[in-house]
UniProtKB/TrEMBL annotation:
InterPro entries: Cyt_P450, Cyt_P450_CS, Cyt_P450_E_grp-I, Cyt_P450_sf. One of its GO terms (molecular function) is heme binding. SUPFAM superfamilies: Cytochrome P450. Keywords: Heme, Iron, Metal-binding, Monooxygenase, Oxidoreductase. It holds the Pfam family p450. The keyword Iron applies. This is PREDICTED: cytochrome. It comes from the Eukaryota. The keyword Metal-binding applies. Heme binds at C342. The lineage of its organism: Eukaryota, Viridiplantae, Streptophyta, Embryophyta, Tracheophyta. Belongs to the cytochrome P450 family. Coiled coil: none annotated.
Length: 401
């Protein structure tokens, strides 16, 4: 059915024509193919990911330093906000890949304006909007989501445009190219027939913003949920740490190339879709332009597939299983499937496993002194991804010499 579906832009995403420059929301066609090709062939291909390993190492070193410094300021038994530091680290990593610069510093206000605008965009993008289901409410904007989106998106576009203009001016005076993602976008040359000669400034800005939105919150919220599950399942946590000690050793830092040697470590609704044509699917008739929600949460917990306690946290269920997350097995589709699946999977694979591996290998963790396994809050809230409603606070103790 994926060949008959495209992503359905919601009303609030039409502000500043965001949906027209978006890879995630653009209708299937030449524009979408150009953006998809740039992402999968030029930006997140394994060769380029390997070439930027030093940038991820720098950002991960900063993550460890930030956590240590924050823990040293807190009273004994008080935890650090795990997701906050992972979010900041990922934001800077994407800044280095995209723009060759750090964008935020938790110890200063540097980059705070851009960070706040992007954080707002992620929150409003994930919020359910009544006007999407009752079109006659659109002009009222009853929840104020369009107004909030317009404010934060306008600020974010303004700042992204500044980044682009600074780079174009630097290239104009002959400054050496950086070879980052922005350079790749500026150097794009289309055939001028079924694709543009150049990517427009509007689409450049939206593309930059979308990479930050797609990469930062998803990494931090996934890491936070994983850490929460591990801290509430100490036997599983000990297995993961034991594997790290056995493969990496007790006094050496984990490297990206070692992720594949850590099988135990590797073990929400998707974006709404819209039927491009009248479609018959499994006995159902889906009219053209029908909005379709794929319940990835239910698919991943289908008791007919996951017979061994599908709602329990059991990473070992994937050991020896042929099922993976890469879109070929519809029993598990966290990144989607088909030609509209997440274009950043290769980078996400490195980022998620390395983030969790470093946190577990560098530190021993325990729950904040005010929380136990029985009292921890599991409520969630919507954003770009499913966030924890009450952030995880965990106590780190440095364990790697």
């Amino acid at each position: 059915m994926t060949s008959h579906l495209q992503t359905a832009p919601q009303m609030k995403c039409r502000v500043y024509d965001y949906h027209k420059g978006s890879l995630a929301l653009a209708p299937y066609g030449s524009h979408w193919r150009v953006l998809r090709r740039l992402m999968t062939v030029d930006m997140v291909v394994n060769k380029r990911i390997n070439e930027t390993a030093f940038l991820r190492r720098k950002c991960f070193d900063n993550l460890q330093l930030w956590i240590e410094e924050e823990a040293s300021k807190l009273k004994e038994g008080h935890g650090v906000h795990v997701a906050r530091f992972v979010f900041l680290m990922t934001f800077n990593l994407l800044g280095n890949l995209m723009l060759s610069r750090d964008l935020v510093d938790p110890k200063s206000n540097e980059g705070l304006e851009f960070f706040k605008a992007m954080n707002g965009l992620m929150e409003w993008n994930g919020a359910a909007n009544m006007a999407d289901y009752f079109p006659w409410l659109r002009w009222l904007d009853p929840q104020g989501l369009k107004r909030k989106m317009k404010k934060d998106l306008g600020k974010a576009i303004q700042i992204a445009s500044k980044f682009v203009k600074e780079r174009m001016e630097a290239r104009g005076v002959g400054r050496e190219k950086t070879g980052d993602f922005l350079d790749l976008l500026l150097e794009f040359e289309g055939n001028g027939i079924d694709e543009p000669d150049k990517i427009s400034e509007h689409d450049l800005n939206i593309f930059i913003l979308e990479i930050f939105m797609a990469g930062s919150e998803t990494t931090s919220s996934t890491t936070e949920w994983a850490m929460t599950e591990l801290l509430c399942n100490p036997e599983t946590l000990m297995k993961a740490k034991a594997e790290l000690t056995q493969v990496i050793g007790p006094s050496r830092e984990i490297e990206e190339r070692e992720i594949d040697n850590l099988p135990y470590l590797q073990v929400p609704f998707l974006l709404p879709r819209k039927a491009m044509d009248d479609t018959d699917f499994m006995g159902y008739f889906i009219p053209k332009d029908t909005q379709v929600f794929v319940n990835a949460y239910a698919i991943g917990r289908d008791p007919d597939v996951w017979v061994d306690e599908p709602n329990s946290f059991k990473p070992e269920r994937f050991i020896g299983s042929k099922i993976d997350y890469k879109g070929q097995y519809y029993e598990l589709i966290p990144f989607g499937a088909g030609r509209r699946m997440c274009a950043g999977v290769p980078l996400a694979h490195r980022m998620l496993h390395l983030t969790l591996g470093i946190l577990l290998h560098q530190f021993d963790w325990s729950l904040d002194g005010n929380v136990t396994r029985d009292t921890i809050d599991w409520k969630d809230k919507l954003g770009i991804s499913m966030r924890k409603s009450v952030p995880l606070l965990a106590v780190p103790k440095k364990c790697l010499l």
